Amino acid sequence: MYRSGAPSQWTPGSTAAIRTFPARAFSAVPPAHPAPTPNSKMQDEFISGTSAAYLESLEDQWREDPGSVPASWASLLRQMGAQSIQESMRLLLLVRAYQVNGHFMASLDPLGLEVRKVPIELDPALYGFSEADLDRQFFLGTWQMKGFLSEDNPVQTLRQILNRLRDAYCGNIGYEYMHISDRDQCNWLREKIEQQERAQYSKSRKKVLLDRLAWADMFENFLSNKYTAAKRFGLEGCETMIPGFKESIDKAAELGVESITIGMPHRGRLNVLANVVRKPMQSIFNEFKAGPKPASDAAKGGSTYTGSGDVKYHLGTSYDRPTLRGGRIHLSLVANPSHLEAVNTVVVGKTRAKQFYENDGNRKKHMAVLLHGDGAFSGQGIVYETLDMSQLPEYTIGGTIHIVVNNQVAFTTDPKYSRSSPYCTDVAKCVDAPVFHVNGDDVEAVARVMELATEWRQEFGRDVVVDIVCYRKYGHNEIDEPMFTQPLMYKKIKTHRSAHEQYCDKLVAEGTLTREEIAQMHEEILRKLDQDFEDSKDYRPKPRDWLAAHWKGFKGPDQLSRIRETGVKMDILKQVGMAATAIPESFTPHRVVKRVYDARRKMIETGEGLDWAMAEALAFGTLLNEGNHVRLSGQDVERGTFSHRHALIHDQNTGERFVPLRNVYGDSRPNEFFTVSNSSLSEFGVLGFELGYSLENPNSLVMWEAQFGDFANSAQIIIDQFISSGEAKWLRQTGVTLLLPHGYDGQGPEHSSCRMERYLQMSDEPPDKIPADMTLDTRTQIQEANWQICNVTTPANYFHLLRRQVHREFRKPLIVISPKNLLRHPKCVSPLSDFDDEEASQTEQGIRFKRLIMDKSAKSRNKVDPGVEPDAKRVVFCTGKVYYELDAEREAMGAEADVKIVRIEQLSPFPWDLVDRELRRYPNAEVVWCQEEPMNMGAWSHVSPRFQTLFKEPHINRRLDALRYAGRAPSASTATGYGAVHAEEQVGLVKEALMD
């Protein structure tokens, strides 16, 4: 909590605090300390875990007989012989106390609402020093020469040492870094911190900082005056973040960074868009007007699609920005919803994809910056998930810079009621991230730590946190009344001068600028703002792009993309299949895995009995062979939750890892070209990462697989707010694919249902309107939908479904309600000929994904002439694995002639034309919908109104209640936990579907 703004009780030159605390006895430790090595790490070596009592005994032993102590200790003791060894040890403990706990004494809160107690660890009296010692000289040792004694003056008075320590660690910046386990990293930071303690910005740099701070402040004031009743979630109270951020960008470009991907909440977003990312201000001002923007690219044959849009403080943009040092850097701010922190791993995933596609193996060229609020950083679990991924081999991006806009109020909640730790940033210490707390009123301090954070990231490739302690000038939004909940804070804020005003006064006082020069700067900024405001009245948005150059040529929802075949030539299928099943002779797989791969090779050789895993491997392999990137991640995806995939195998003797699918492209591409990776035990974070990854480049198949489909609800924010609605809100396409294992096998309520009804409910296709044109060459049904929901029942159809994701001129999210027991079901197999493009035709039965699979006895006819079968008594429509149970029972009953079973493989968008065809095929048959799920779940509520719409068609002409339901009764739980009950229910619903 930040209540430290008032000057400390202990000021330089004062001994008040020295007399406040009595000295404490030092606890003894076992006399088994290793001797220190006389190098720059010595301070940490002997202070960490070494007590004064032990050191005193060691000194006594050395004075008695120098040869009786280890040589390295003797060397150290000789260096310090001019003073008491006990004093030297205690002085070094005091120095370390400042390095560890000095931040608790720093002046961080601009409002100064409450004085923080000086930690007793910073009291010299604790270490045996008194006022009489302040002007005595002490020798600190050569290991500190790279620190604040860098002016080559290792002997200083205690007063000088304390003043230097307070200046370095207790000013307007508080550093937390001594928790880092790597000593080299600690020493690097210590050197930077203690050397920059007296560093000063030049006059020219100060002018730049003022200009940037003035733009940030005056932009907010301008919006406030022009749009008095509008919500904008302004940055007032933390305007110094803007110049600090820009300093970080300049430093990053200097250190080789070529692009920065940014994620942030709504607070201050308009300011970042305008002053950091350089979104045209005319566009921002124009967005304050209500209503959709007319697209300007229609005249060029482009798309006129505008989507549903979103509020202005959720939108993103990208820009190639010049830097002060003459370079350029690409900035992109990712669009996101109000769900705080949800965008974190989306940004990280997008950054990882940039690094992959641009061969940034050392991860120095592409960087991520995440902005946070204080309440969200400590309160939202996704923050930890993001940090936890930061060093994982398949998810790391070489460090993220985290900026916390710490206005000390989470909506209306005081810090002491919103977190249990002293700082909102404490969670970051779990991954050894340094944390720099800085007073948000000190623009130079903010700029300094932002530069340091950038240097750290580039040097060590690890996360870092900058905690800008500031305030929020208004309420949660500009029309909110903050005095309801924080009366004392807001009384203080009303009289508090802005950082901009304070810096103007500072620069005038020190002679950097005159009042006239500052006024001239302000006039020029205001003139430009006024001009952009006038220009915004006639502003027309430029043609949109689909994210980046990689997306050039991809089509919007209103532009026809013709349907393509997805079959592959037989010789290529066999070539890929053989490569994907080859294991080196020197490699020793598990005997079961060897048996699996032998069986897969036989499938390719014979062309028969290809199972689910082999079909998936062929889909991956053929896409890789065509030059597409394939990435699959999630919990247990390497082996597969159900031990079916074995895409990554392990040598049983050496533990070596091997990915057979990488045989397909060999050494021609990097190993990462096909990535299969077990993720951390996270759904929210990892799915966000894969979504972000998919946004970068369309020439890829990016998949996330849930361990069980039920667990996808842990990632529901990503699904609801990004995947299902992202294109409509932000005009951003993605082909991200979710594999959600589903199926009622008696495994209980947590391992049965992926809750397909939720995804179907979020589909934006109207249930009462049949598309006007469903012909093969002109159908735009999927392009106009927000996503696809498929429940596939054959390996070949799965193969074509995955390939379809890549082989078209647009991208849509795909939800695959994937099977569990069909992975090894003896009848769930396909011949290799079903993958072969030589059998492709222009009929619905061509070699491509089948949205609907007709009854196995039905003759192949087209939609115009379905081949009427008037004698069929019942047609059962279903989706997913229940088909095989229905078919088995029908065979047992000998009812193939009377009962027909039709599988809907694509539930959304609904295959209106094909269902229409099947209804016409069986004009006299009773129509039944059968599902395993309870009536209030599954696909029933989705398909029922659509069947009723078809029943109204004159050529079908059935009663609206002609569709009969066969399935489980409505239920609060997805499934029973009792095996016997499950079996009884399953038998009952199958018989109900097939019998009168």
UniProtKB/TrEMBL annotation:
Gene Ontology terms: cellular component? mitochondrial matrix; oxoglutarate dehydrogenase complex
The source's domain of life comes to Eukaryota
Q: Name one Pfam family in it.
A: OxoGdeHyase_C
Q: Which cofactor does it need?
A: thiamine diphosphate; Mg(2+)
Q: Name one GO molecular function term.
A: metal ion binding
Q: What class of enzyme is it?
A: oxidoreductase
Reaction catalysis annotation: N(6)-[(R)-lipoyl]-L-lysyl-[protein] + 2-oxoglutarate + H(+) = N(6)-[(R)-S(8)-succinyldihydrolipoyl]-L-lysyl-[protein] + CO2
Q: What is its main location?
A: mitochondrion
The record's EC number reads: 1.2.4.2
Q: Where in the cell is it found?
A: Mitochondrion matrix
Q: Which keywords does UniProt give here?
A: Magnesium, Metal-binding, Mitochondrion, Oxidoreductase, Thiamine pyrophosphate, Transit peptide, Tricarboxylic acid cycle
Any transmembrane segments, and where?
none
Please name the GO terms of the biological process aspect recorded for this protein, alphabetically: tricarboxylic acid cycle
Where does the Transketolase-like pyrimidine-binding domain lie? 610-825
| UniProt function note | The 2-oxoglutarate dehydrogenase complex catalyzes the overall conversion of 2-oxoglutarate to succinyl-CoA and CO(2). It contains multiple copies of three enzymatic components: 2-oxoglutarate dehydrogenase (E1), dihydrolipoamide succinyltransferase (E2) and lipoamide dehydrogenase (E3).
**Family affiliation:** Belongs to the alpha-ketoglutarate dehydrogenase family.
Question: In its UniProt entry, what is this protein called?
Answer: 2-oxoglutarate dehydrogenase, mitochondrial
Q: What is the lineage of its organism?
A: Eukaryota, Viridiplantae, Chlorophyta, Mamiellophyceae, Mamiellales
